Amino acid sequence: MMTEPGNLYVISAPSGTGKTTLVKALVDAVPGIMVSISHTTRSRRPAEQHGINYYFTDQTEFDHMTKHNDFLEHATVFGNSYGTSRRWVEDTLATGQDVILEIDWQGGQQIHTLIPNSISIFILPPSVNDLYDRLIKRNQDNHDIIKQRIADVRESTRHIGEYTYIVINDDFSAALNDLKTIVYAARLSQKRQIVKFSNLLSELVTAKVNEF
Hints:
single chain; alpha/beta; Rossmann fold; four-stranded mixed beta sheet; 46% helix; 19% strand; globular
């Protein structure tokens, strides 16, 4: 069997939708899939760790990396810069591992242009009220930032037509099952199976009836 490069997933969602928790559960449940760790100029929150949640850097270093084309995609969100390491993603996909990018719609557009066969998923909350409650309960932002995040939902949701799949995170187990289904289905695509089982297919198409 030959090794087919892994699938690249772009997963986007409005802040507070539960994207990060869902992605962690997906990675824990499905072997052979990893999350890319983004670089960011955002301040580190109390529970976050450098190299695990993000690579925290200053704007000067981020701009230097951007200038040297180190990022596969990058965007500014709520005044902070975020970027995905080009080398890490390309090297990881080459090993056959699937890779998830947790990025916003701006980064998603860049990835779709660079890698048209990437698989994109947009996660939505069940309602605006539910999203507001989640943002309040997670206690990470002040009221003004929460208002900005709610306003951003309108803009980001306008881009759902650019995504391959839409998942509603109303029931966590159901949403996780939806994500797992997408991953498993992608692994059974014709293109991947033809490469993975090239020897078998060659044997089948060249088989001679009189040999049996």
